[in-house]
What we know:
The protein is an alpha/beta fold. The chain has 2 helices and 9 strands; from the N terminus they run βββαββββαββ. α1 crosses α2.
Amino acid sequence: MSIGEHTYTLTVQWTGNRGGGTSSYRSYxxxxxxxxxxxxxxxxxxxxxxxxxxxxxxxxxxLLAALAQCHMLSYLHxxxxxGVVVTxxxxxxxxxxxxxxxxxGQFEQVTLHPRVxxxxxxxxxxxxxxxxxxxxVCFIARSVNFPVGHQxxxxxx
Length: 157
C-alpha cells in the first residue's frame, strides 16, 4: 500500500560533441554533466573500457554508490528504531556486471561490505542482524532486479 509519492528530476547534458557529433564510434566523447538544481554539477562519462574518462563518474559506479548510500541510510534508520547507537559506518561495496555478445549488459550482483561500529558491545549481535531489515526498506535495493548481498562486520568502539 502506497502512502505517498515523491518525484525526482534532474538534467543530463551531453558535453562530448567534438564537432562531428556521433559520425563514428571514436569521434565523440562520452562526457556529460548531471545537473540538479542547487547542487554541484556531477561530471559523468562512460567507464574507461567504453571510451570514457576515468576522471569522471560513470553510471555503473553511481548505481553501486546509490545502493551503498541507500543501504547505509536505511541501516541508520533501522538502528535508531531498535535503540542501537552507531558511531561509525564505512562500506567497501562491489558489483559484478556482465557484458553480452549483443553489446548489452547487466549487473548480476552487488555485495555491500559495511563495517559498523556501535557504542554498546552488548548490541553487536543485534546490530549485525539489522542489515536484513535495512535491505527490506532500502528504496534502491527494492528497485533493482539483481541480488544485493551483505557481508557486514560489526564491532563495538
